[in-house]
Amino acid sequence: MQNGAMQHHLIDPRTGWPSTSDLISVTIIARTTVEAEVYAKVAFLMGAGDGLRFVERQSSLATVLVTHDGDVLTSSRLENYLDVHFVYQPVEAVAA
Questions:
Q1: Is pLDDT above 70 for 96?
Q2: Which of 1, 33, 52, 80 is the most exposed place for a label (fewest CB within 10 A)?
Q3: Are 44 and 19 in contact (CB under 8 A)?
């Protein structure tokens, strides 16, 4: 909290201010955990559209991005790593 407003812990190097990304979660599949961590932060700071395009340009990565609106975006290479398909169900529907 800063001046009564919630602020993100990631600082956007382009602005020097806390991130205002439209994403709430980024999962990256990479060769190493260090790569996954770095690429996840980069994609998060870029936002959903630019972040997904950025990951698609990296031939060794796959991703799942979740937006504040609840949209789940996946990269084209994610299917190479999974035998399941994501089905998004809002928390409210699960609790009901």
A1: no
A2: 1
A3: yes
